[in-house]
DNA sequence: GCGCGTGTGAACGCTTTGTGAACGGGTGTC
DNA sequence: GACACCCGTTCACAAAGCGTTCACACGCGC
């Protein structure tokens, strides 16, 4: 997931720690100029704006974000209890708000709720290893930014291997873990799938799946050698 | 203003007093039957559901409200801090939530925010994806400016898929989420509806709904790969 | 060099999905 | 009440996709 836009920079510890605890990457921005300068390639996935210490600046930031070429959704503002009565909904400057003091759980729940509403499936469940990324929700895979067109079994096998980098699996283990516990089939099936995976990974990354002679296969580098 | 639907009946004092203090009229309902029986002539303007003491019943009420002939917006649920981690956004059962203990000001601010978003949002609720647009208020659909003449189930299926672009759904999931929770029917039903949707979308856009072999269907492209 | 283990290409056959058509419940009309 | 129509569902068949298997080639280690 791309990092969230967080204003101001640095944000109060309760927010930065909360985001870290929940596993949301974030980037602090201190000015409107930073918004463009620090923007990730895929755009900001959302914003958290703290309006407690500097409400004027915070809502100006919201306004700027909303008026931008690319509407930045969703926007969560952090306010104090005293600010609640004055909260102005008319301008539609934010999608949700969180009242200080808040628990980390509430922050997480509100972000999950917002991401779900805006359709950006919350934190997509990813399996990543180096240049390789598997999106478990969309059943898509990519390496070095290039999409991989994998069949179902290829995807399942790669997912399993990439979930346990460095570990060696025998063909029998792979058959039982990937294909199913009661599967009864030839061990050569694994070989063929590994071969097709290597081909689709491309010559550059074919080495990601290594053959361990007389044992089985290993994904990625062993942890003991560089 | 017509009274808000409040569940359960009687609601906890913190809620009833809070609503009274803020000047919101409300009616307590204790069962799904009450929802129809006590409905104001202009319909419910919104609902506040307390999920603390009886979460099961509360979310069942949300489900009933959402599945009703007239979608009842907005829905605010009251939860305890412990319930936050388990909050399930996937079913889209509520529009906002408020964590106990809350101040009256927060309740008021959340209701104002919700009413502003749904009430005077002015713009009809749209689901859009590229050239496709669904108007949830008028049950109309269009692609590339061309109106689509969809049947009810076709519309519901397309709405659900387009609301979660990129995500893959199994036929079973689609049956339960689009057709209904207790639906028991053949999975091929989904196939046929997908086929008819593709036909009506036209050859140019038929690819919007992709088959993920051995898994299910996906609408549009995932976000994190282009 | 020999044997075992693995890579490779191709073919087979099952599973999954697409497709056309028919069935049947429900609703509105005459 | 009979009829026609719409639409969701189901069925049967066709087509495609994909996993599996086999036969053979290659290469490493003893």
Could you outline the blueprint of secondary structure elements for this entry?
The structure is a homodimer of 226-residue chains.
Chain A: E1 4-7, H1 13-22, E2 26-28, H2 32-37, E3 47-50, H3 55-67, E4 75-79, E5 96-99, H4 104-117, E6 126-129, E7 132-135, E8 140-143, E9 146-148, H5 152-163, E10 168-170, H6 171-179, H7 188-201, E11 209-212, E12 216-219
Parallel strand pairs in A: 1-2, 1-3, 3-4, 4-5
Antiparallel strand pairs in A: 6-7, 7-8, 8-9, 10-12, 11-12
The first copy, chain A, binds a DNA duplex (30 and 30 nucleotides) through residues 151-154, 185-186, 188-189, 191-195, 211, 213-214.
Query: Count of helices of chain A?
Result: 7
Strand content of chain A: 15-25%
Assembly of the depicted chains: homodimer
Largest sheet of chain A: 5 strands, parallel
Strand line-up of the largest beta sheet of chain A: 2-1-3-4-5
Which of globular, elongated, flat, extended, rod-shaped describes the shape of chain A?
Answer: elongated
**How would you spell out the order of helices and strands of chain A?**
EHEHEHEEHEEEEHEHHEE
Mean pLDDT of chain A: 85
Distance between the termini of chain A: 27 Å
- Radius of gyration of chain A (CA) equals 23 Å
Structural commentary:
The structure is a homodimer of 226-residue chains. The first copy, chain A, has 226 residues and is α/β, with parallel strands linked by helices. In chain A, 35% of the residues lie in helices and 20% in strands. The first copy, chain A, has helices at 13-22, 32-37, 55-67, 104-117, 152-163, 171-179, 188-201; strands spanning 4-7, 26-28, 47-50, 75-79, 96-99, 126-129, 132-135, 140-143, 146-148, 168-170, 209-212, 216-219. A five-stranded parallel beta sheet of chain A has the order 2-1-3-4-5, sandwiched between helices. In chain A, strands 6-7-8-9 form a four-stranded antiparallel beta sheet, covered by helices on one side. A three-stranded antiparallel beta sheet of chain A has the order 10-12-11. In chain A, a hairpin with a 2-residue loop joins strand 6 (126-129) and strand 7 (132-135). The model of chain A has no long low-confidence stretch (mean pLDDT 85). Chains A and B meet through strand 5 and helix 4 of A and strand 5 and helix 4 of B. Chain A binds a DNA duplex (30 and 30 nucleotides) through helix 5 and helix 7.
């Amino acid at each position: 997931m791309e990092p969230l836009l967080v204003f101001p920079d640095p944000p109060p510890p309760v927010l930065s720690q909360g985001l870290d605890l929940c596993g949301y990457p974030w980037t602090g921005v201190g000015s409107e100029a930073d918004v463009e300068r620090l923007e990730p390639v895929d755009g900001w996935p959302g914003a958290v704006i703290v309006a407690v210490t500097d409400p004027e600046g915070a809502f100006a930031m919201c306004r700027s974000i909303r008026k931008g070429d690319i509407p930045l959704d969703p926007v969560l503002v952090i306010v104090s209890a005293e600010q609640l009565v004055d909260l102005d909904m008319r301008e539609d400057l934010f999608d949700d708000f969180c009242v200080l003091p808040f628990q980390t759980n509430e922050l997480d729940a509100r972000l999950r709720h917002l991401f779900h509403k805006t359709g950006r499936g919350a934190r997509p469940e990813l399996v990543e290893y180096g240049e390789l990324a598997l999106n478990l929700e969309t059943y898509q895979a990519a390496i070095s930014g290039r999409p991989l067109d994998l069949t179902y079994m290829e995807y399942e096998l790669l997912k399993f291997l990439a979930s346990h980098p460095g570990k060696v699996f025998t063909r029998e283990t792979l058959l039982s873990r990937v294909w199913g516990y009661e599967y009864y089939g030839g061990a050569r099936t694994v070989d063929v799938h590994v071969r097709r995976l290597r081909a689709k990974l491309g010559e550059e990354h074919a080495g990601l799946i290594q053959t361990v002679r007389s044992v089985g296969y290993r994904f990625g580098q062993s942890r003991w050698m560089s």
